[in-house]
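Below: protein 1.
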Amino acid sequence: MLIREATVADAEGIAIVHVDSWRTTYNDIMPSDFLDNLSYGQRKELWKKNISSDGNYVYVAENSDGKIVGFISGGKREKNKVENSGDLTAIYILENFQRMGIGKKLIKELFFKFEELGLKTIFVEVLEDNESRYFYEAFGAELLKTEKIKMARTELNLLVYVWMDISTVLL
């Protein structure tokens, strides 16, 4: 498995992982018509913009065939006003490639970048019903707060986790 920094040329592969992962991850959380209407083309354009944006860091996981099977992104959200902090904004891995250590490799790659940038505290938001929250907990993230959000015509609980010191993740 190759972990590397994403380029704009990766936007299509990232979009496929993003949409397909949403459809499997949120299958029992969000309305099926919402998930069915997710667009590879729209996500491709979104990821072209994300990859090109200063202060946004995107890494991909490629299998031995050179196919993107996962990705991670992070930076600092506009609403984040905490000094020396950043945000893990997305991590998705195709269902058939989960539980193979790819997530661990991706998170370490991003957190090494955060360390290089001098970011010590990292936030991540995750829906309460999304089992990936246990992945964050396994890496030492602590629940900071819960808030209600509305997404896809559904009221959901959003959990905000924090790593106060990312050095433990980098061991």
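Below: protein 2.
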Amino acid sequence: MQEPTRIIAIRHGETDWNVQGRIQGHQDVGLNATGLRQAHQLAQALRGQAVDCIYSSDLQRALQTAQALAQTSGAPLVAEPRLRERSFGQYEGLRFVQVQTQAPEHARRWRERDPHYAPEGGENLIALRERIAATVDELAARHADQQIVLVAHGGVMDMLYRLATRQHLQAARTWQLPNAALNRLLWNPDTGLSLVGWADTGHLAADSRDEQH
């Protein structure tokens, strides 16, 4: 029987678009000064822990966060495009309130987590779940009895939590998704993901932002 894989899942550090409430999606936004500090605090928090590989979304805000961890841990860093945020198509760069004004029906379906809803040029929740589940299964299977780090985005963290706790796609979110928090999971080839610990921000200053949508 294959031994389980330990996973530390991390949402990237803060960006200016997080502060402004802008929809990032696949837009390649870098970390701001707070985000860079959070990445350093993360690296210090994981110093001395065994990390066999770091997989990161290839978007700059995730890679910058992951690079800080790689420099401290010495673990190899692999850019993985399948760990990108959900694509929000035509609405990337806007604030949600602008979507509410411009397309109230789209905003309603988005807010209610309609699993079939996708912005024009974007991705629906079903597709996101399938992408993340398949990616995590593949990456974790490579590292039996090891510990890996996944650095990604708020929407990815939300999907990992739902997969680990068997939450429906439309279930109201009662868990937090702070920037640069430590989230711990266990992956077993027979049962998939299970939750070990979530949203640990003890290593951060009290300024981490939750994902709003």
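The chain has a mean pLDDT of 95.
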